[in-house]
Amino acid sequence: MATQKFTVEVKRFNPDVDKEPHWETYTVEADLMDRVLDVLNYIKWHIDGTLTYRRSCAHAVCGSDAMQINGVNKLACATLMKEFAKTGKVTVAPLPGLPVIKDLVVDQSEFWKKYEAISPFLINNDPAPELERLQTPEEHALIEESTKCILCGACTQSCPSTWSNPDYLGPAAMLKAYRFIFDSRDQGASQRLKVLDSSQGLWKCYTVFNCVAACPKEIDITKHLSALKRKALTANL
């Protein structure tokens, strides 16, 4: 297995002792097929136990280890060290645009409030069926890609509108709204569109495509937000 020495720079901040964030540098021998998460684990377990970051499943399902790696929002568990073999240098920082609790851990309270605002659950007032609410393969195809979102926040925290306006709903919440509004079994489109059709919702999206570039699941988020904009205009007419 090919190994290489890497210089890993981590943006650190401990509110108990630090006035400002600062960078700390570590030298690590890593296999090229190791993930950035593996390297962070090594640093924490063998070099500096005070390093703090989130992680859970480590398989790109939970989305908890989203962070900025070499200036790009990514999942640490899905980013291989071979990507940085040429320079031998990796920088790791918390997701931008959110308050830092400690080191790579950010406060996502507002992110989750925006998610809750779009009612992220199936709304259907018809009597419950005996088995399940059915939909055709064609109906499911409309929402299939949007269901792959793992709510890591990489898209929302890559968006300039989010950086400049803390009240903006952001692409993650609006993508989840799409998932339910275009679900053939759902009846809550009108109440969600009231939340989306505002200066802090759909119309603050300027189609920059940062969200698409940042999504670890390669979801075409902008396409889905454009469909929501058309839906909102149609509803107003």
Describe the structure.
The strands form two sheets. Strands 2-1-5-3-4 form a five-stranded mixed β-sheet, covered by helices on one side. The chain has a two-stranded antiparallel sheet with strand order 6-7. The model has no long low-confidence stretch (mean pLDDT 96). 30% of the residues lie in helices and 16% in strands. With 237 residues, it is an alpha+beta fold. The chain folds into two domains: 3-106, Beta-grasp domain (Ubiquitin-like (UB roll)); 109-236, Alpha-helical ferredoxin (Fumarate Reductase Iron-sulfur Protein, Chain B, domain 2), CATH 1.10.1060. A hairpin with a 2-residue loop joins strand 6 and strand 7. The protein has helices at 36-47, 109-117, 137-141, 160-164, 171-181, 189-196, 210-214, 221-236; strands at residues 3-12, 22-31, 66-69, 72-75, 89-93, 100-102, 105-106. It is elongated.
Oligomer: single chain
CATH class of the largest domain: Mainly Alpha
Instruction: Specify the overall morphology.
Output: elongated
CATH fold-level topology of the largest domain: Fumarate Reductase Iron-sulfur Protein, Chain B, domain 2
- Low-pLDDT segments: none
Write down the secondary-structure element order. Answer: EEHEEEEEHHHHHHH
For the terminal residues, how far apart are their CA atoms? 62 Å
Number of strand elements: 7
Strand order of the largest sheet: 2-1-5-3-4
Q: If helices are DSSP runs of H or I spanning 4 or more residues, what is the number of helices?
A: 8
Main β-sheet: number of strands, strand sense, barrel status? 5 strands, mixed
The averaged pLDDT comes out at 96
Per CATH, the superfamily of the largest domain is Alpha-helical ferredoxin
Total domain count: 2
Residues in β-strands, percent: 15-25%
What would you call the structural class?
alpha+beta
